[in-house]
Amino acid sequence: MQPRVTAILVARNGAAHLTRTLDALRAQTRPPERLVAIDLASGDGSAKLLADGGVAQTVAARAGSFGDGVAQALRHAASDPQPDEWLWLLAHDAAPEPEALRALLGAVEIAPSVAVAGPKVMRSDAPHVIASFGETLSGLGASVHLVEDEFDQAQHDVQSDVLGIAAQGMLVRRDVWEALGGFDPGLPDADAGLDFSVRARLAGHRVVVVPAAKVQRASAPEDFGRPPGSANRRRRKARRAQLHRRLVYSPALLLPLHWLSLAPLAVLRSLGHLLAKRPLAVPGEFASAFAAAFGDPGVFGARRRLRRVKQLPWSAVDSLRMPWSELRERRAVERQAREARLAAADPLDVAPIGFLPGGGLWTLLIGVVVGVVAAFPCSAASPRSAGDCCRWRAAPPSSGAPRSAAGCRTATAWPARRTRSRCSSRCSAPRRSGSRRCRWSSCSPRRRRSPR
């Protein structure tokens, strides 16, 4: 049976790229049977461009993420899934090349086990540079692009099976989409395609990339419908998505442990950012941790959806994860490339580093917090009186009195009631008592003299 394709075009403030994307859809050598376009409350005339672009079915909806747009478009389409129907998911700035859909369908037709296929995503400002071509997970669950910012010389065209693909440009069988519940609403900005692909893998389906299918993308998925964000904002969104997936993928018995570790891990990672001279990344760490701990009500719903469709153990996808050795090598190469760019940059083009933009304020605040935490045990061990403080601090090592966390002699080392000492009132300021200096060795209880 000939597959039937429904293309879903999601637009949000994308008037600058929408005309090019519509022209690319009309230029497909194998056009989709139906095109459903949805505008997410754009304020730049995107809805008018869709209406004037000859789109048969246009839906206006409230603002939301790319996944929200796909879900609302399918609800408004009001059509039952066909036996061999496929969904082609595109954003307003994702312009497919003429052979893209034909290549994607060719890959899924020869392999019935393939339920999700992804194109080679190229940069629109540099069509010879690969923006994304397959995704995977590290050992700790961080998302990693298999290919990113590389010249396309067909060096990666041998790849096929991957753990995940990008959401924009994805071709997915509709019955699989309905069974998996679509994209996770808890991942509105990052890792939506990766998470969906992981669930498809655990449900027993294959996920592949198709090198012959190319889609040119103008902006990062994290910036969908927004102005381009900074590196710190993208890092914060990626970390937020990683923590959400960690809570969703975790076994039930380990879920409380993962939840309790969010704040301590944020502190440790913040110290790592400071050592790596990235102080502006510290606020994002704490914001991501507290959002995952207290502002993520969708974790339990995502866990139920995963439990409902999961057919294979997590060990079935271990071979598709990135090994630690390869991850370290990639990070070393990225660090060298970053240092080379900084060395080749014109010093006049480098923005001056000040106290606020350079992260000095956050470094100062972190230092203050660390100092307060370090001094808390001594400040918490407050003496009950000045005389007790004198006894705590002046107790000799040979007295055998236990020490508190601050290093002082605790009050429990002294009996509740004590007999009066000759120089108990003079301990705070040693003075001569008779012919000897009042010392702790001479501070002994009075004894009644026996009559001679």
TrEMBL record:
Transmembrane segments annotated in the record for this chain = 247-268
**Cross-referenced Gene3D superfamilies:** Spore Coat Polysaccharide Biosynthesis Protein SpsA, Chain A (3.90.550.10)
The answer to whether UniProt assigns keyword Transmembrane helix to this entry is yes
Enumerate the residue ranges of region (Disordered).
396-452
Q: Where is the composition biased (Basic residues)?
A: 433-452
The protein depicted here goes by the name Glycosyltransferase
Keyword set for this entry? Membrane, Transmembrane, Transmembrane helix
**Naturally occurring in which organism (per UniProt):** Arenivirga flava
KW Cytoplasm (keyword) present:
no
* InterPro entries per UniProt: Glycosyltransf_2 (IPR050834), Nucleotide-diphossugar_trans (IPR029044)
Q: Where is the composition biased (Low complexity)?
A: 396-416
UniProt xrefs under Pfam families: Glyco_tranf_2_3 (PF13641)
